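Need the bound structure for glycinamide ribonucleotide, inputs here:
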Amino acid sequence: MKKTKIAVFASGTGSNFDTIVRERKAGHLNVEVCLLVCDKPEALVVEKASQYGIPTFAFEAKSYENKEGFEREIEKQLKKLEVEWVILAGYMRLIGPTLLQAYPNRMINIHPSLLPAFPGKDAIGQAFDAGVKVTGVTVHFVDEGMDTGQIIDQEALRILDSDDRDSLQKRVQEVEHRLFPATIQKLISERGNQNEKKSTH
Ligand code: GAR
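Answer from helper R.:
Posting the output first, comments after.
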C-alpha cells in the first residue's frame, strides 16, 4: 500500500518525532517522513532527524519579515516533497493562514492535557499546579487558535499523590508515544491520501 507522505514540525527534544520514525520503521505506521520542520536550529530534534537521514528545514523566525514569510517558504518545501499531512509534535508556534489554507483538515497536533483544559505552554505544569487529579493527552486538528481545533482523540491519566512534575511528564509522554502514532495511522487509513483520492475520480 502506498505510504502517506508526512512532515513533522517540532521545536524541542523530539521524543514524539522519534516515536513516529520508530513506529514507521517497525511497520506500524504506513507513512514516509519526508521532512522535519523546526523553528529552533539548535534543538535536539534536528540532531535526531540528521541521525535518521531525514531532511530538515530549520529556520529562525527573526530572519523573516513576518510569519507569512517563513510559512511561504515552508509551504514551498512541503509542496516540492508532495507532503500530504502535517504533524505538529511539540511545535511551539501558532500556525498562520498560509499553512492552514495549504493543509485544511490535514494538519494535526498533540497536546499534553485533556483539552480544553490547560492549553498553551507547559500544560503538564499547569495541571500539576492546579491540583487536578486527572490529566491526559489530546490529539486534535489544527485551527487558528491555541490548541483549539476539533478533537480527534484523548486519553486520560490519573495524577498520583506520589507524582512530581518530572514523573508526571514521563507518564504523560508515555501516553503520547502510544496515542499519537496510533491516531495518525487511524486517520490516514480512514481518509486515504490525496493521490489515492485523486485516482478514484
Ligand atoms: C509534547 O509533550 C507535546 O505534547 C507538547 O510539547 C512536547 C514536545 O515533546 N506540545 C505542546 O505543548 C503543544 N501545545 P517532544 O519534543 O519530546 O516530542
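Comments: Residues 4-200 form a domain with the Rossmann fold fold (CATH 3.40.50.170). Residues 37 and 57 are 5 Å apart (CA to CA).
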